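Entry type: protein chain
Record version: 2
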Amino acid sequence: MAYLYIAGIKYKIEFTEGLVDNETMGMCLYDQQKIRVSKELNPGRSVQTLIHEAVHAVLFEAGYHTDKDHDEEFIDRVTAVVTTIFADERNNELVQMMQKGLNE
């Protein structure tokens, strides 16, 4: 079982079937602290979808609770940039340092 902690809130990550349609590959259930990602996605798309839903959770935990605050185009743009931070091997040292610092 996987979890993602966002602002101290434990979000359960679930890989489930039946989410994929023209618009939906994942979802964030704020009231249940769950992020669901479709099992039907390829690994790269799964990571991107997980980050996309995590951005929704970040905004929610920061106090942005309306649909207007969660504009999908904005979320997609932030997701694209954040994904590159973790995907770029030149950032491995920084990512490892962040992990170490957060776990101390």
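Comment: Strands lie at 2-6, 9-16, 26-29, 34-38.
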